[in-house]
Please model this.
Amino acid sequence: MGNLMFLSGVTLTIGPKQTMKFFVRPRNQRGAFCFLFGLALVLYGWPFFGLIVEGQGFVAMFRGVFPWGLIFLMTVPVVGWVL
Model:
């Protein structure tokens, strides 16, 4: 259920046209395939393997955002001191 909420949240945030452009972009196709295949596995009744495949797809699609997230976390007072 959370996976469908993620997809609907992305669609509501950036719009359906931009969502389709994001998922069919050549560098995101492998990640989108893994994410959707993982969603199918979860719905089919294999939640453990589905979540692993979805996680891999999520990392593949959003790998460009992780450095920005790390930079943001470094600016947070307590977390930045730990990092």
Notes: The CA atoms of residues 31 and 57 lie 4 Å apart. DSSP finds six helices and no strands in the chain. The mean pLDDT is 82. Residues 29-44 form the longest helix (16 residues).
